[in-house]
Amino acid sequence: MAGTPEFDINNPAEMDYPEHERTYSRFLAMTKWGSAAIIAILVGMLVGLIMGAGVIASVLAFAIVLAVAWLVFR
Pfam families of this UniProt entry (predicted)? Predict the structure, then answer.
């Protein structure tokens, strides 16, 4: 059986809403930029490995995708 709670269920603790909002904002930013980085890596791999364009073209494609993401997310 469940025991009695060791905290007051009638008076919950106050929440720090500004900190919650900052944490959520950081989570969204990390998700957004992480997704952009993964897409840029995959495009670079596509250009370098599948299309056979070489390392320099692969790095340029990676940089171009990140630049486009920066312009879109601004």
Answer: COX4_pro_2
Q: Is 7 left (phi over 0), alpha (psi -120 to 50) or beta?
A: beta
Within 8 A by CB and 6+ apart from 69, the residues are: 33, 36, 39, 40
Residue 33: both structure tokens together: 């930029």
pLDDT in tens, 3-60: 776 777 788 778 888 999 999 999 999 999 999 999 999 999 999 999 888 999 999 9
The pTM assigned to this predicted structure is: 0.74
Q: For residues 41 and 62, is the Cβ–Cβ distance under 8 A?
A: yes
